[in-house]
Amino acid sequence: MEIQTLFETTELFDHLPIGIILLDNEAKILYSNQNALKFLAVSKEDILDLLIPLPSIDDRIRVHLTNLNGPVSFEISINNRTLLCQLKPNSSELPGKATLILEDVTRYKSITILKSEFISSILHRLRDPLTSIKTSLSLLQHLQETFMNPDAKEIVDISLTESNRLILFLNDLRNSFYIETGLAEQDLVLETTKVSYLIEKALIDLGRFTENQSDVLRVRISGNRNASISGDFQKLKDAFRCLLYNALLYSTEEITVEIKPESDTVIVQINDLGIGISEADAPMVFKRFFKGQKAAEHNPNGSGLGLFIAKSFIEMSGGSLYFESRENKGTHFTLTLPVARN
Amino acid sequence: MSKKRILVIDDEKLIVKSTCMALQLYDLDAFGALSGKEGLDEARLKRPDIILLDIMMPNMDGWDVLKALKADPITASIPVIIFTAREYSNGPEMARQKGALDYVAKPFELEDLAILIHRSLSGGE
After folding, report:
1. pTM
2. Is there a contact between A211 and A161 (Cβ–Cβ < 8 Å)?
3. How far is it, in rounded angstroms, from Cα A134 to Cα A153?
4. What CATH code would you report for A188-342?
5. Which of B12, B25, B89 sits opposite A189 (nearest CB)?
6. Which among B24, B107, B58 has a CA at the least distance from the CA of A129?
7. CATH fold label, A3-104
8. In this structure, what are the phi and psi dihedrals at residue B5, rounded to the nearest 5 degrees?
9. DSSP label at A238?
10. Which tens digit of pLDDT belongs to each residue from A198-210?
């Protein structure tokens, strides 16, 4: 076979860290490099003589090959290895129907699991002392009117606001970690709730960690307050908190939130007249840990997680989030959520 | 009328102490236990009106304690509120499925916890 001779004479493909297999229409193997043989734990003779047909190793390969219209990725586990498989249709210049590229991601997988356990443990370890600190400070705040002078009262208030800020940052980290590991999607709880109630709850959370608690009064809700949606309450509340936090942070004027029910969706628009998002930053704002230049100047301590979390959580509930913005004029975030069917 | 008694079960001593002190403010008589086993003994002996129960505890975790509480006729009817740093979205649902009355994620708002306890004591909404 001409192509096999070509591969074998160059030896180039045997030096690559990935496995390469060329398959014909019937999933017969036309060529396999050394790493592919190593990953699948078979000999070249076995494979080329069809003693071990590839689909018998994992039937998904045949299924994907039969319906192949474009590149597909999937994972298989074999001989204690996790292999990332990428199956791509071949162009007319290559022999066979498709190329299967195998990448050994076993080590990456085990590091990811370790990382998850590490983050989960840190989050838990931080929450316990924070619970004691916050409860003790709340206790002091309750008692302060009876025995504290104004300076002490202010110190307690500041400490409580700061511990709440830390708690919200931990919540953002946890949410981001849950999204990244897929745990957030696994524990999705869909229920019917009023959008206005979600927004009010998000504002209560915000009020607890804002230095100037009257700041949340700048948010004005209009439109249909009775509009109900179907979604994960906790996640959507966090999404609204992130969006409203940004709106309050980057503007000094009134924030309007308009609720507009349509036949299948409820549209919510959050409008601010703040610093806006530059054209250069616009494609990046939903990326994790991204902070636009102006946003970073305005709020150097921001986590860069809020919009990533908001978009992920809204999409998990079957909604969407997008925005229009003009620098120094303001930003309009529009989100859609599935209307509740009762 | 005597004050309602709340048992707080958590292996973190300072959480137990601060929570108990804070609940006194809301006219509740709170006392603590620092392990699942101690919590079970206290529940059987003192029969509190409500139990606040942490999940992540060594040896006997909160789910085991909840199971034992519900299996014992002396403690089966005491309402249990799960009180944990482990907060998945479906935490409240999981807690109810396992026999708890409600679920509070730590760190909690003192006021929210007090409202929840008083609401539970008065038998619902």
Report:
1. 0.70
2. yes
3. 15
4. 3.30.565.10
5. B89
6. B107
7. Beta-Lactamase (3.30.450)
8. -105, 130
9. H
10. 999 999 888 877 7
